């Protein structure tokens, strides 16, 4: 068997640094000496103790980074009862919104000195949710973030989240659990108001699934805008967030002659609907104006470019971590319900209604 030996530069196959077995491990005492503090102070910084001056904390963290110190997290968890790990339970880890939120949670948690352990659910069965919770508790997580956009998941989590400090994204049936959510209702209302201001007599709505908390909020905002304008709400067309369901509903809309404006519950459904309309020779926005929700990256490159509501998904993830870490530091949440605002992005898919 051929043996690959490290070069003088300490690099072997594929430019991977060779591990120097002769170099002694960096200890907490080494960090303390480099930062000119006691080992106890280093321990306090590692455990995020509040009674450490900012300058001292920064000096210790700089020494840790420069020396490449890696604390024994398993041993520290045994001593302190804390693993420096945040658990996340989520049903959807691949959609644009959830994926962006998860990425932001990961980054914000690392910045706060925590690892993240994510358990994706394959179903919303109460047993599966309880099993996911037990798995995270077995890792001695310090806190929990639940991404629970469905009412069924809310019900399954009820009674489980009190075992550790927790934050719920979108909603929680437990009044003691802080909630962080996108302003679904406000964003939907703004989109609908904009279409009415363009002169459309009413606005049709393509909604997400009936058990979706986000879909419920967006329907509420759409209804509120129509009611404020004295316009009766048309029947809601219900999809499942997918492009395919938008296409199917778009075929129904194409068969009607009374629609000039549509607010789609998300951009994927808007995309499918626009495809169905194009196949029938119905132009956007000359014949029908369309506004979506989510501002997925593809929205700016559709033909025409899609007007949409832009939630700040990354900020939503960061807020989740902040609310949870504040609890872990002994601070009560400033509010039990944090709403992250949205903004309307106007592009080329909206215009005044066609003249009759």
From TrEMBL:
GO molecular-function term, one example from the UniProt record: transcription cis-regulatory region binding
SMART domains given in the database record: HTH_LACI
InterPro entries in the cross-refs: HTH_LacI, LacI/GalR-like_sensor, Lambda_DNA-bd_dom_sf, Peripla_BP_I
PANTHER family: LACI-RELATED TRANSCRIPTIONAL REPRESSOR, LACTOSE OPERON REPRESSOR
Species of provenance: Longispora fulva
Name recorded for this polypeptide: DNA-binding LacI/PurR family transcriptional regulator
Keyword Transcription in annotation: yes
The entry's keywords: DNA-binding, Transcription, Transcription regulation
Domain HTH lacI-type residue range list: 26-80
Keyword Transferase listed: no
Family annotation (CDD domains): HTH_LacI, PBP1_LacI
Stretches for region Disordered: 1-23
């Amino acid at each position: 068997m051929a043996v690959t030996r490290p070069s003088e530069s300490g690099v072997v196959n594929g430019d991977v640094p060779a591990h120097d077995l002769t170099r002694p491990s960096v200890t907490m005492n080494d960090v303390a000496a480099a930062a000119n503090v006691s080992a106890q102070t280093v321990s306090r910084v590692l455990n995020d103790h509040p009674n450490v001056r900012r300058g001292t904390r920064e000096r210790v963290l700089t020494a840790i980074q420069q020396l490449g110190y890696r604390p024994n997290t398993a041993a520290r968890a045994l001593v302190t009862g804390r693993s420096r790990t945040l658990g996340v339970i989520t049903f959807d880890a691949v959609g644009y919104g959830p994926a962006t939120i998860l990425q932001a949670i990961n980054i914000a948690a690392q910045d706060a000195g925590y690892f993240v352990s994510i358990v994706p659910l394959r179903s919303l069965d109460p047993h599966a949710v309880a099993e996911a919770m037990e798995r995270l508790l077995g890792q001695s997580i310090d806190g929990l973030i639940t991404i629970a956009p469905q009412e069924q998941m809310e019900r399954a989590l009820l009674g489980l989240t009190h075992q550790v400090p927790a934050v719920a994204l979108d909603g929680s049936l437990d009044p003691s659990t802080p909630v962080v959510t996108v302003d679904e209702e406000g964003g939907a209302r703004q989109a609908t108001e904009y279409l009415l201001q363009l002169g459309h007599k009413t606005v049709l709505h393509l909604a997400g699934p009936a058990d979706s908390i986000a879909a419920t909020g967006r329907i509420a905002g759409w209804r509120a805008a129509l009611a404020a304008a004295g316009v009766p709400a048309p029947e809601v067309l219900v999809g499942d967030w997918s492009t395919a369901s938008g296409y199917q509903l778009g075929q129904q809309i194409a068969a009607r002659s009374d629609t000039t404006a549509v607010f789609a519950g998300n951009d994927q459904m808007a995309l499918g609907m626009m495809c169905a309309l194009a196949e029938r020779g119905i132009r956007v926005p000359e014949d029908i104006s369309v506004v979506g929700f989510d501002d997925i990256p593809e929205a700016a490159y559709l033909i025409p470019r899609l007007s949409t509501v832009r939630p700040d998904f990354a900020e939503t993830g960061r807020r989740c971590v902040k609310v949870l870490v504040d609890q872990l530091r002994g601070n009560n949440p400033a509010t039990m319900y944090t709403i992250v605002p949205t903004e309307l992005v106007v592009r080329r898919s909206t215009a005044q209604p066609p003249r009759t």
